[in-house]
Amino acid sequence: MPAHRQPRHRAVRAQVIPAIAVLLSVGYLLWPTLRGGDLLGRDMVFVPDQPLDLQALGLGGAAARAVPLDAVVSLVQAVLGSWLTARLALVVPLVAVAYGVRRLLPRATLPATVAMMALSIVNPFVIERLAIGQWALLWAYAALPWLVHFIVRARPSLPAALLVVAAASITPTGGLIAFACGLLCALLVSLSARARIGFAVGAAVVQLPWVLAGFVGGAALASDPAGVEVFAAHADAPGGVAISLLGLGGIWNAEVVPPSRSGVLGVLAALLVAGCVVGGATWLRRRLGGPGAASERSYLALAWCSGIGVLLALLPATAPGAALTGWLVESVPGAGLLRDSQKWLLPFVVLAVLSVGAVVSRVTTVPAPTWQRAATVLGALALPMALVPDAHAVLRPTLTPVQYADEWATVAREVGPGDTTVVVPWSAYRGYEWADGRSALDPAPRILSGLVVTNDELVVGEVTVRGESQLSAEVGEALAADDPVRALSALGVDHVLIEKQTPGQAPAEVAGLPVLYDGSQLTLVAVPDPAQREIATTGQIAAVIASHVLVLLMVVLFTISQVIAGISGRRHEICERSR
């Protein structure tokens, strides 16, 4: 090959090979989603037509854990449709995190780039969170490398950083992680006091939708301390909880843990991560962020975030930590977010991925024959999959699409936007025959308009974790009363939706109410003379809507500013080249 073509060939190869690695890694995890239908499994609930109503804004009486997530999904689905929305919700964060870690280590060798991009997608943390259906947390995971990049690069971009924080803040946990990590980075790098204050204020404003919904939405701000032990990080690999977390696993639900984690592969993953975090620290500290970035300070910020995250993940798994966390979730508003402690491992996962890239870069800088370089790249791509070869054993039940019957749309047309509907059998999770009996959150609150009330108590093994919705508790008492129909009417319930083909029964008195619709899967009955019930005051509704609109306007304005800045930068680059 002529000498002048070699740099161009290497540049093309440096772009194409990582792209192929990302495509294969994403396909390895998500291929079951290619079928038609909607995704319904565990905590993952996508429906054909999700309404944008007060419940989607967090004013339905339930805890504001899906704020503003439900509103975002409703808006995007109205434009792109349900099938594409659900697939993009999974694909976008996986692709984004891969290119985010690459952006933080632009000088990594090609094998190192492939290794860390593949590992950022295929690792126990991602697999377990996908298997449990908590896809929205992966948006915060994907946002973190980009957040660090925009803050610590030679020319920081606070609008871009705030856009990333907004993407992470579709759930409260993601918002808290992005806010804390971004603020720490802003404090450690050489930003002006004005820029730091601007970022802190902007990142705080982005949290307003779920914060306001939490205070005015009708759910209790405290949580049941019984959930601390249940949802604490658990050992899924030999050696205990610490080894499991070090190997990027440790989720509380054993049913979503790949079986191979319980053997030698779980220990190997922990040893690999530990070795790379230690062995790659010096190389990473000098190069994180790329040329002109505050590499050492940005590494320090990421290390601090990772260390704090690991401590939060370990805390409820110890006796003193469990006692402290139990007191916090019972006494401090919003502290219930601490219960599912393994999710705080997120910054450490990013650090581990970057450390693997640093170590592979160190050992692949020596010139080698073409075949050896190709073998190294293939090995780097295959390593993450080899560490979790049975990912599909836990992913397939969650990611295999289902088909909603037309009955759901028929029932949705019978329910008005101001109605209150109770769903029975009275349990939070379902095991529908038409969905292969898989455990899944009830989709009714995301299909029906108005206020939809389900049981928010969680039964894990022999432990029942008390719910946070006062209305849900009142409805549960009404269903168990001697005259459930009168009790439901007094609560302002308009309809009861009876879901068939799932374990459990409706009270006989409720099943005997006037039928509005009766099908093979669903029966909708009317409650006579329901009392008037106000979901929220006009001021509360206005405040919550205003917070969503404010954040939406911020996102639109910052996006426009970034597009303009990108066009201007491109024109400047072209002018410089033409001189």
TrEMBL record:
Residues annotated as signal peptide: none
Protein origin, superkingdom: Bacteria
Transmembrane segments: 12-31, 80-101, 108-126, 132-152, 164-191, 197-221, 233-252, 264-284, 299-324, 344-363, 541-567
Keywords: Membrane, Transmembrane, Transmembrane helix
Protein name per Swiss-Prot or TrEMBL: Uncharacterized protein
Organism per entry: Epidermidibacterium keratini
Lineage, uppermost ranks: Bacteria, Bacillati, Actinomycetota, Actinomycetes, Sporichthyales
